[in-house]
Write a structure and sequence with these properties.
Elements lengths: L7 H8 L2 H65 L14 H14 L6 E6 L4 E6 L4 E7 L7 E6 L6 E5 L10 H8 L4 E3 L3 E3 L4 E11 L5 E10 L1 H9 L7 E6 L4 E4 L5 E5 L2 E4 L8 H17 L8 E6 L5 E8 L8 E8 H25 L1 H26 L14 H17 L9 H18 L5 E8 L2 H8 L1 H17 L6 E6 L2 E6 L5 H16 L17 E8 L6 H19 L13
Antiparallel strand pairs: 1-2, 1-9, 2-3, 3-4, 4-5, 6-8, 7-8, 8-9, 10-11, 10-16, 12-13, 14-15, 15-16, 17-19, 17-20, 18-19
Helix pairs in contact: 2-3, 2-5, 2-7, 2-8, 7-8, 7-9, 11-12
């Protein structure tokens, strides 16, 4: 009798050996579990990367914005030094030349790089400009008559004699210059000229102007300082994100100020250059990122401020790109945007490699040993779970708990890269101490901890201002000044207890968090100890400064909760206490110093 025929799959069990029949269900189960675990691992890794990358892009935008604000804000400081608020225009450049020279020298000393040129012109066509070549050498450009060319003098030192006069070939008429006309026509006392190209250096320049009135308040002249923007490009190109990331600073209409990759200007003819608009950039990612931001601004411009925002878009090839952007502070008077774009694949590359490796290892485990496959998948899942936990902590604002690294392969590289990026976001690159963001977060956490725990032991915040860093930089050079800052940070770190936090807050300012103190007297004792430590001569100054040259520092204390209920209040009180302490320690006949004076 013929054997009944049916579907082929029904006959398959009869064709397999018993060993194969017993093994096949487990192989299928392992493969199904591999697919399930792999899919979950991929999803967990993708979510982890999305969270961490958004945080890192936001931090990158903030760092660029802060650097720009420091770079741009120096122009206002230089103009304030040249023509303090309320000071009337000079009646005669010749009669007040010495006073003007002194103020202009001081103005170009505030931020000599980049604000090394300060100048003034009035309605009568008079002009005075000081261009600093170096710490001691400068060129004085003078036109005391209302017509004719300028005379250029070389000057050494703030009160050096005018020497080597050279009369320019061309007539320089300040009243016809854009900076003069812009300032006179603008009702605001401070204004910016449009960005333009310096065809000698091919650098972008923007000029900050300040209108100067006469005795009755009528606009009489204009003080100005040029701000080269080449440092913006340098900052963006130094920014370490990923291999294919792009960062840019643009004006509202898309004109590039600086970009991390590609050009921000183009050549249109022999010796002729034009600025490049981001929308027409030959770099596809730069053009796509600006177009994406422009679309979002068109939809909800009223909600976009100085705080970084993150989003994502698809490029022309359909790939996901993560995006971060923010406006520059409008108080600076510049309508500029900071944009950072990173292809998602840059962040997912490590996860993709691990996914492939996990699948291969699982296949090998199916062939050789089911247990080995399970062990490999368990390790991968555990490591990804730790990264997911680290991502959630970063999403909650906790940047000082990096993921533990146990592996040496690509998954370990990814974990180490996350830990390294977190560490860099919390560390001051010069001193190796905590940075401003880290100490603010730590104080905030301490306040929250105090409120939850109800600890009877108060804690203290100490604000520290080094006394003579500008003098050190001016007399001995910035390299020595940096060494002094490092040594000061080391002394502060050595002068506090384990568990206390020392951070470089800004420039020559430090902030300390004393984790717990018994009372105000305990905090005062810590201050006295640190003041004594800072009075000792700096090793960094040995051989370059006189033996009696003491840098010193001023310390201000704020106790929680007596002197402040939050981070801002504590820092404000500590700053005020530091200033009061400084006045107490000055000799009776010493001049009154501002809190920011060195």
């Amino acid at each position: 009798m013929a054997e009944p025929r049916g579907p082929a799959w029904r006959a398959l069990p009869r064709r397999l050996s018993l060993r194969s029949l017993l093994t096949l269900p487990y192989v299928v189960l392992i493969l199904a579990l591999v697919l399930l675990v792999g899919g979950l691992s991929w999803r967990a890794g993708r979510d982890t990367v999305d969270t961490l990358s958004a945080q890192l892009i936001s931090e990158a935008v903030s760092r660029i914005t802060l650097s720009l604000e420091r770079h741009v804000g120096g122009a206002d400081t230089a103009l304030e030094a040249a023509f303090p608020t309320g000071l009337s225009a000079p009646e005669s450049l010749t009669g007040e030349l010495q006073a003007l020279r002194t103020r202009f020298w001081l103005a170009t000393s505030v931020h000599r790089d980049p604000n090394n040129y300060v100048y003034y012109g009035d309605r009568q066509g008079h002009f005075l400009g000081l261009w600093r070549f170096s710490e001691q050498e400068a060129e004085l450009r003078l036109r005391t008559q209302g017509s004719g060319p300028r005379t250029l003098y070389r000057v050494s030192g703030i009160h050096g004699e005018l020497r080597s006069p050279v009369v320019e070939d061309k007539v320089f008429e300040p009243r016809e210059r854009p900076w003069f006309q812009t300032a006179i026509a603008n009702p605001a006392p401070l204004s910016w000229t449009p960005v333009y190209i310096d065809f000698k250096t091919l650098d972008l320049i923007v000029t900050r102007t300040r209108r100067v009135g006469n005795d009755v308040g009528e606009p009489e002249g204009v003080a100005a300082t040029d701000l080269p923007l080449k440092q913006v490009n340098a900052l963006l190109q130094r920014l370490a994100l990923t291999e294919h990331a792009a960062a840019m600073v643009v004006e509202a209409d898309g004109q590039l100020i600086g970009v991390s990759r590609g050009a921000h200007m183009k050549t249109v003819g022999p010796g002729t250059h034009e600025r490049l608009n981001a929308a027409q950039s030959p770099d596809a990612l730069v053009a796509a990122a600006f177009s994406a931001v422009r679309e979002r601004l068109a939809v909800g411009a009223e909600t976009v401020g100085t705080a970084p925002r993150t989003d994502s878009f698809k490029d022309a090839d359909g790939r996901n790109v993560q995006l971060g952007y923010a406006h520059l502070d409008p108080a600076l008077g510049l309508d500029w945007l900071v944009i950072v774009a990173v292809p998602q694949a840059d962040f997912l590359a490590g996860v993709q490699r691990n996914f492939v490796q996990a699948t291969v290892l699982a296949g090998v485990g199916v062939v050789f040993a089911l247990g080995l496959g399970w062990a490999v998948l368990g390790v991968v899942t555990r490591e990804l779970r730790e990264l997911a936990d680290a991502a959630r902590r970063v999403g909650d604002g906790v940047l000082d708990e990096p993921p533990e690294v146990h592996r040496t392969d690509e998954l370990g590289d990814l974990a180490r890269s996350f830990a390294d990026m977190q560490r860099r976001l919390l560390t001051d690159h010069l001193t190796g101490l905590s940075n401003r963001g880290a100490i603010l977060r730590r104080i905030e956490d301490r306040v929250l901890q105090q409120r939850r725990r109800g600890d009877r032991w108060p804690f203290a915040v100490m604000f520290v201002d080094l006394a003579r860093i500008k003098e050190v930089n001016k007399r001995f050079g910035h390299a020595v000044g940096d060494a002094v800052l490092k040594e000061a940070g080391q002394r502060l770190r050595a002068g506090v207890r384990i568990g206390d936090v020392v951070a470089r807050y800004a420039g020559d300012e430090f902030v300390l968090l004393l984790e717990s103190v018994e009372d105000r007297a305990d905090a005062e004792a810590a201050r006295s100890h640190l003041e004594a430590a800072m009075r000792a001569p700096m090793e960094a100054l040995a051989g370059v400064a006189p033996a009696d040259f003491i840098v010193g520092a001023s310390f201000g204390i704020a106790l929680y909760p007596d002197d402040g209920q939050d981070t801002e209040g504590l820092l404000r009180h500590a700053d005020a206490d530091m200033y009061a302490r400084r006045q107490q320690l000055l000799p009776p006949d010493a001049p009154l110093m501002r809190p920011d004076a060195d």
